[in-house]
Amino acid sequence: MDWSDVLKLALSIFLVVTGLGLGYLFLRMAGVFARVGTSVTQVTDEVIPILTRAQTTVDGINLELQRVDEMMVTAVNATKGAERTVQTVSTAVTAPVRKLTGVAAGVREGIATLRARRAREKADREAADAARAAAAASAATQAAAGGPVPPPAPAPAAPAAADDGDTGSMKRPRHESPY
């Protein structure tokens, strides 16, 4: 037996011991993988029902959110309808009120003008009566005195700028109309 045979024998023993070590290692690894597989199966068995319940809960929440969305859309539409109704009623009520206010303002202005005109005519009649009475008195005085009497001084004219409520013409209104 020479050295090459000894080396071959040592290499053979080394390879057999390495094979046995690898076999033992693979056996232990098989056990670890079996336990990992069991653990994964248990976790999967526990997680799947939880995920199923979570999915059911999320579906229920989505359904409720759809209902709330429908209610909100209905509420918004009802609010818009109520707003249109209020606007229509407001327009229907305010238009005749504005017209009635305008008519009332016109009647009030017409009555004020009529009163002012009557007052002016009455003042004119009284002034004319006073002038006639003064002329008659003057004529009587002249006849009694026997000669002409100087004419009386003319009565002062009423101020032209006095605002007696009569608009007279449409140039200057008595007051500003709100319409």
Describe the structure.
The protein is mostly helical and 179 residues long. It has a domain at 1-95. The chain has 1 helix and no strands. The chain has one helix at 3-145. The N and C termini lie far apart (137 Å).
Key phrases:
1 helix; rod-shaped; 179 residues; mainly alpha; single chain
**Arithmetic mean pLDDT:** 84
Order of helices and strands: H
Number of helices: 1
Q: Poorly predicted ranges (pLDDT <50, ≥5 residues)? A: none
**How many β-strands, per DSSP?**
0
Characterize the main sheet.
Answer: none
Counting helices, strands and paired strands, the structural category is: mainly alpha
Basic shape:
rod-shaped
Topology:
Layout: H1 3-145
